[in-house]
Amino acid sequence: MKYTPLGNTGVDVSVLALGAMTFGSKDTWKLGGLGQDLVDKMVSRAIDAGINFFDTADVYDEGESEKTLGKALQPYRDRVLIATKVRGKSGPGVNEIGLSRHHIRQAVRQSLERLGTDWVDLYQFHSWDAHVPLDESIEAMQDLVEEGLVNYPGVSNFTAWQMATVQARAEERGFSRYETAQMNYSLLNRDVEHEILPFLNYSKMSLLVWSPLHGGVLSGKYSKDSKPPGTRAGNRGLFFPFFDEKTGFDIIERVKQVGKEQDATPAQIALSWLLSKGHIVLVGAKTMEQFEENLGALDVNLSSDQVGKLDELTRHRIQYPNWMIERQSSGRTFPVSEPPWTRKN
Ligand SMILES: NC(=O)c1ccc[n+]([C@@H]2O[C@H](COP(=O)([O-])OP(=O)(O)OC[C@H]3O[C@@H](n4cnc5c(N)ncnc54)[C@H](OP(=O)(O)O)[C@@H]3O)[C@@H](O)[C@H]2O)c1
């Protein structure tokens, strides 16, 4: 296992982290329904493989994900980092949602109880909340840090201007930095490359990649005509409204070809491509076999030629004003897209 610093902090986390969205036997969102026995097995295998970073959320399986993960992690609590989130609807009350002081304080108490721990290592705003004044949310987060309930704040599903505003306001107020951004990124959705990644590099935040296999699509198990029952796409359709089947499945064929060159599966290639960019990847799995396969991505060493081929496969058109900034920077000592402070594993 390789380790990398979490944002600009002094702690190191494994480059593969285990995502717990499939955990919990209520299976509210039809994503996994993993009961305690299987969760214990997966967590124990993760620890053996060197994983020290685990991600969940208060809303995953109505809190069952936090409960099962917390229980499985009890024997290892001091050597792992637990990340969870607040923002989603967590109960029937009109205020049991969002990033108000009221809801943040209520949600953290409930998460700590379900996780069976006294502190959360990384507490993430699950997405921007336009309903609440930003100062109210960041003051509530700061209180949690000062009370020792949270070690590091983070965000998820924020735009770049939203992240920049949070960091600037936190700095002005003398509050803790937000160390991470948890965002969707994969060979099938590279939107973060436009504005988010340059901002994260600039502010020394880590990217935590969610749905690195695009909900399982990059495993190569689907085709235009086949979405077998029992799979995520078969059970609930594809989570991503923008998945374009026409080009998407052609891209997966190309990923399979690189897999043949490397004697690796398409899932391993897709994960390895993300690891080659230096990000922290949250792997999700519904079975031990899938988890084993995904761990195998650590043994794939893509050549720079293969990374280049995969880059070209789904590269976006550079957006304005970025191309203008690139043009005006030509001849300088480094490309604007790769500043010297960019951290690679
Ligand atoms: N912040 C956010 O808004 C947000 C959103 C989503 C996820 N997340 C985080 O990111 C983590 C990972 O997300 P994700 O579960 O969507 O990741 P993913 O890797 O894109 O999808 C995982 C799913 O794909 C299938 N799969 C995984 N490995 C496979 C393999 N080797 N072969 C065939 N199928 C395979 C399984 O589903 P089936 O077997 O059912 O097909 C599995 O549950 C979550 O656990 C959560 O911690 C965060």
Overview of the structural elements:
This protein is an alpha/beta fold and 345 residues long. Helix content is 38%, strand content 13%. It has a single domain, classed as TIM Barrel. Helix 4 (134-146) links the parallel strand 6 and strand 7. Helix 1 (36-48) packs across helix 2 (64-73), helix 2 (64-73) crosses helix 3 (101-115) and helix 8 (245-262) packs across helix 9. The N and C termini lie close together (11 Å). NADP nicotinamide-adenine-dinucleotide phosphate is lined by residues 19-22, 32, 55, 156-157, 182, 210-216, 219, 221, 231-232, 267, 282-286, 290, 293-294.
Number of domains: 1
Annotated CATH topology: TIM Barrel
The quaternary state of the protein chains shown equals single chain
Across the major sheet, the strand order is: 3-4-5-6-7-8-9-10
What's the CATH H-level superfamily name? NADP-dependent oxidoreductase domain
Share of β-strand residues = 5-15%
**Shape by Cα distribution:** globular
Number of strands: 10
Distinct ligands, ions and cofactors found in the model:
NADP nicotinamide-adenine-dinucleotide phosphate
Average pLDDT metric? 94
User: Unreliable stretches, pLDDT < 50, 5 or more residues?
Assistant: none
Which value, in Å, is the CA radius of gyration? 20 Å
